[in-house]
Amino acid sequence: MKTKLHIAIPLLVLAACAPMPGMASTPSPTIAIIESPRVAPTLAQSLRGAAFDRKILIGAGGANPDPLRTDPAYGQTMAREFSALTPGNAMKFGPIHPAPDTYDFRDADAFVDFAQANAMQVRGHTLVWHDEQPKWLEQGTFTRDQLLAIMRDHIATVVGRYRGRIYAWDVVNEAINDDGTMRESFWYKTIGPDYIDQAFRFAHEADPNAKLIYNDYAAEGSGTKSDAVYAMVKGMKERGVPIDGVGLQSHFTITPPRLADIDANIKRLSALGLDVHITELDVRLRLPADAAALAQQASVYRDYLRMCLANSNCRMFVLWGFTDKYSWIPGKFPGFGAGLIFDEQYDPKPAYYAMMDVLNGK
Length: 362
Ligand code: XIL
What we know:
By secondary structure, this protein is α/β, with parallel strands linked by helices. The chain has helices spanning about 10-15, 45-50, 65-70, 70-80, 95, 105-115, 135-140, 145-160, 185-190, 195-205, 225-240, 260-270, 290-310, 330, 350-360, and strands at about 55-65, 85, 120-130, 170-175, 210-215, 245-250, 250, 275-285, 285, 315-320, 335. Helix 12 (about 260-270) links the parallel strand 7 (about 250) and strand 8.
């Protein structure tokens, strides 16, 4: 599917706005576009424009294929404001590999094409997870070797299809429990704890230039889980496993983990030679949200982005969505919502202006 965009940012400048942090070269994107009745910002007025030259990608995650096709403001706003995107579900095992010999790449292709057309980088999400798996996989009976072969084949097929077009992959998602033990997922039980190393090796085989990331929640700051993630990735580095970084999901409330603790965690990961991506930030509010709550929310976005920018290994700052219109929060946390930086009418909220201020050095 080709999506028509309506934005008025000069194309060459726009293309220059999606650097690949930590990568040698930026491929020159092909760009289709122009003409804009609704949105005609100058470059400096968009997040991606303000982030230009800051060695950080600003991303819209949880990207949803339906509004990309039906709600023009969705794609327009995303392309105008963000230099990266993460498909919400399209690349998960269940949706993309629904039967043993069937892959469905339609939505994933749409996002990769859209990103390329708009000079955005893509985070691939996610290859190996305990959730959103197809029935054939979850209910099948496999030996260790059979399941390793399935994993390798899946990774070779999905990562291989987009080789050279995806900046980073969340190779393994949420493998550790809150108490720091390994989650006894289907993968763990059949393959054993080395399934994680194996997944990273397979991903590296399939695209040696993609950044390979371990992604998890509630491991942002200090604590048992964060220590367990740190210990695991340290071991991976010592064993020579091709891991490039850790994703901190960051599904927050207005009382997030202490920023000093997250800062210390990012620094200890840096000392291992690892990048950090903020991968799924949202700051949910109890509904209805009043002006005071929106201001507190803006502070969380402001302080977190400032801290990320202050760490050179913090290379991506990705939200889980960007407009409250399509957020996962109300479905997941009843009574909560309004967690993103644009409201349901695509109007910027205080959190948006807070991010702009930080990116503009204020
Ligand atoms: C969520 C999606 O946003 C929802 O649409 C889906 O129903 C469930 O998954 N951590 C992750 C994401 O890594 O994949 C999850 O996305 C949110 C939590």
